[in-house]
Amino acid sequence: MLRLMDIVDRVQATRPTANVDLVQRAYVFTAKVHHGQVRMSGEPYLIHPLNVAFLLAEWNLDEETVATGLLHDTVEDTVATTEEIRDLFGESVAHLVDGVTKISRVTLSDVAAQKAESLRKMILAMGKDLRVILVKLADRLHNLRTLHHLPPDKQKAIARETVEIYAPIAARLGMSRVRMELEDRCFEVLHPEQFLELSRKADERRRNREAHVRSVVTLLEGKCRDAGIDAVITGRSKHLAGIYQKITRQGIDFDHVYDFIGFRIMTKTLRECYEALGIVHNLWKPVPGRFKDYIAMPKANLYQSLHTTVFGPNAEMMEIQIRTEEMHALAENGVAAHWKYKEGRQTADKGDQMFLWLRQILELQQDMKDPREFLNTVKVELFPEEVYVFTPRGDVKELPRGATPIDFAYAIHTEVGNQCVGAKVNGRMVPLKVPLKNGDVIEIITQPAHKPSRDWLKVAKTSRALNKIRAVLREEQQEQSLALGRQILEKELRKYSLNLNKVLKGQEFSEILQESRCKTAEDYMMTLGYGKVSVMPLLRRLVPPEQLQEKVKESRLSSLIRKVVMRKPSSVVVKGMDGIFIRLGNCCHPVPGDPIVGFITRGRGVTIHSKECPKVLESDPERAIEVSWEEGTKTVHPVKLRVVCSDKPGLLADISRSITASDVDIRRASVLTTRDKRAICNFEVSVNDADHLASLIKSIEKVRGVQSVERGKG
Ligand code: MN
After folding, report:
1. Neighbours of 703 (CB within 10 A)
2. Is residue 48's pLDDT more than 90?
3. Alpha-carbon torsion 175, 181, 186, 191, what sign?
């Protein structure tokens, strides 16, 4: 059991000149007035104030605050009065105890107005003397640690209040260690089943990842040592409540939480932080858009650190935080660490940035009569990264800043999101891409059978919405590909009077399935529809060679070219499909801006024709699909090139490489070999303009073995 000396020792360790007599006298007084009282656990009541005082001592707080920790329940729960406290312990401690007592008097309830009132009291108390709130946080933390002795409904009520008020305040004060403990304990009380399941999974994953963590830490330690950086490196898992939030907010499952284990590099100096960052980015490729410099731009609660996410070993994403020891102390203990580093400052300093937000809230609340209004304002201040908006029925939805009506629609229900066709904000129709503001009332207009469009991926901000939209698009794309693949297959088989159902049951087909790594006939048709595989290998198995109308015989060389040339992403976007092969018509050479239409080409995806192209009239209208140019693409012009060279191994690869090196996209290539050991290669490439073409021809001419390069016809 905790003893008085543990607390005194702790206070003296950080503050050698502290007036520990005050703490000792407070202990004697508390022991006297709480004498005979027991907690729900059956233990003497004194255990609670002792623990609260010890927590405060651990947070390096001064003797007045620690004494208040001991005395905090005396006025509320015993015969002691504020006057007595003032006489015995002075004005300062009396004020602190009074502040804590006043907050405690607010009855716990689910009614929003009362919650708001309790929060208002806390904020007011904080404004007068921040130490009041620190005592309250220590009080709440110890109560949560011993919560299991209370009846379940009481446990849940306390946990809910903690999540809504205390944990955010701890976060706002930068006390992340306290916040995480509060959140984890509340998570366990509020969602016991999910807590158990998640902690089991987390333990398992931690065990599996032990070797990985150790190797990353060892590697970083070595690299830092080599660079002369004195650093401590750790790899630890995220707190469970944080993971749970991530999973529920983003609608992902545990296996997809990539930052489950976060690495941390703690250096002695600020300069070493950036040096360590250099080491990290040198070892592993950073994930674009994930680097954040909170050292140069600290968060509102003064948090400082460098954050980066990299593709680590095995291309696994991992998050790394880099900061100095002092920044780390601030990140873990926030205000409390502040006390230590700015020794002697005990009350809220008006000039201190840390308390700027607090003062702003205090000023705001003076104009607000309605406690609910105050609660909303404070929530906004406590969570600067969120917006709070309302359903027409008055329910609050919390969304990240920048969220749009689409995010709101998906936050309500997946189907509301999928069928969303419009939105009214505060009674007026608005475009779906307009960011929501605090206090907006949003009404979503839905239409049954409506489907999300690809453009929504640019408009939605929440992972939940993005995931749901992608899922629908993927499904749609798969359906389209399946239908297309089936069409292609049926039509090809009909040509040779083959029956689809018979073919699907045959030995040849199961061989093809294996070859194309498809599990089912549907998978095969889908890849066929995508244009990923050709129907030819199947036909070759079913039809005698002399009957087979194979249009283009692929030579050994041209298949080599296909291997060498990486297909670049096309500049044409097909509505509702991606990952599909797209070619521009050889006949009409459409350029961006032309009205276009796409046709599914047998086994080769989609061919784009200009709408005026005569081919359009000849083509099967059933194969036509809607296509559109992607906005902002560079205009490219297809050109045919005829390259004559000697037929020797490796030469085609060299030519292809020199073409792609000139930043030119090869759309097609074919090769003819002649009897005199020469090869005639026909390339179809895309160039930006005539200069581009001229420099391309020059660079091909430089390839050894090339005899001539000329522009082809058509
Ligand atoms: Mn208490």
Report:
1. 18
2. yes
3. positive
Identify whether 76 is a catalytic site residue. yes
When pLDDT is cut at 50, 70 and 90, the band that residue 116 belongs to is low
- 70 Cα to the center of ligand 1, angstroms: 9
Which one of 9, 21, 43, 76 is the catalytic residue?
Answer: 76
Query: Are the C-beta atoms of 652 and 679 separated by less than 8 Å?
Result: yes
Distance in Å, CA 73 to ligand 1 centroid: 5
CA distance 136 to 133: 5
C-alpha radius of gyration, the chain, whole number: 35
| Tokens read off for 606 | 């989609």
Give the model confidence (pLDDT) of 160-189 as tens digits. Answer: 888 877 888 888 777 889 999 999 999 999
Q: Show the beta-strand stretches assigned E in 586-629.
A: 596-601, 605-610, 624-625, 627-629
- Chain centroid to Cα 185, Å, comes to 24
What is the spatial distance between Cα 189 and Cα 277, in angstroms, rounded to a whole number? Answer: 39
Residue with tokens 């082809």: 712
Q: What is the DSSP letter of 441?
A: B
**d(C-alpha 662, C-alpha 677), whole Å:** 28
Which tens digits make up the pLDDT trace of 583-594? Answer: 777 777 766 666
Q: Is 77 annotated in the active site?
A: yes
The one catalytic residue in 77, 164, 443, 554 is 77
Rounded to the nearest whole angstrom, what is the distance from the C-alpha of residue 51 to the centroid of ligand 1? 10
Q: How far is the CA of 84 from the centre of ligand 1 (A)?
A: 19
**In terms of Cα–Cα distance, which of 92, 166, 71 is closest to 123?**
166
| Pair 702, 660: CB distance under 8 Å | no
Q: How far apart are the CA of 190 and the centre of ligand 1, in A?
A: 21
Distance CA 253, CA 27 (A): 49
DSSP-based three-state secondary structure for 175: coil
Share of the chain above pLDDT 70, in %: 79
> What does the alpha-carbon distance between residue 591 and residue 612 come to, in Å, rounded to a whole number?
13
Distance 45 CA to ligand 1 centre (A): 10
Closest CA to 145 of 130, 128, 158: 158
Q: Which residues pair with 309 in a beta bridge?
A: 319
For residue 550, what are the contacts with CB-CB under 8 A and spacing of at least 6?
A: 536
Residue 230 burial (CB count, 10 A): 12
The two three-digit tokens of residue 619, written as one number: 């083509």
Residue 365, token pair as written in the block: 């609340």
pLDDT of 10-31, one tens digit each?
888 878 888 889 999 999 999 9
Query: Which residues pair with residue 572 across a beta bridge?
Result: 629
The closest of 38, 103, 100, 105 to 71, measured between CA atoms, is 100
Contact criterion met (CB below 8 Å) for 44 and 1: no
